[in-house]
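Dear colleague,

Thank you for sharing your sequence with our group. We've completed the structure prediction you requested, and as agreed, I am returning the results in plain text so they can be pasted directly into your records. Please verify that the sequence below matches your submission; if there's any discrepancy, let me know and we will rerun it promptly.
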Amino acid sequence: MTRPNRPLRIARPSGMRERLVAVFMLGLALFNPPLLAVFGKGGTVGGLPVLFLYLFVAWIGLIVLLAAIIEGHGEEGTEKPDDLVPRDGGDG
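Please find the predicted C-alpha cells below.
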C-alpha cells in the first residue's frame, strides 16, 4: 500500500505547554514554606485556621486554572484533519 504524497502539516503552537509550566511555577510559589509561614501565624476565620483555608483555596485555584487551560485547548483543535477529507472530492 502506497501513501499518497501530501505536504506535512505543522500544528500551530497553542501555548498550552507554557501555560501549564506557569501554573506549575505558581503552585511552587503558593506552597513555598516562607509563604506558608505567613498564613501559619495563627488566627481563625469562621472558626477555621487561616492556614487550612489558604491551603484549600490555593489548591482549588490551581485545579480551576488547570481545568481552564486544558478545556480551552480542546476547543482549538476541532478542525477536521486532512487525512479524513478526500482530495478529489469523490467517495474516497
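Summary note from our side: The radius of gyration is 23 Å.

Kind regards,
the structure core
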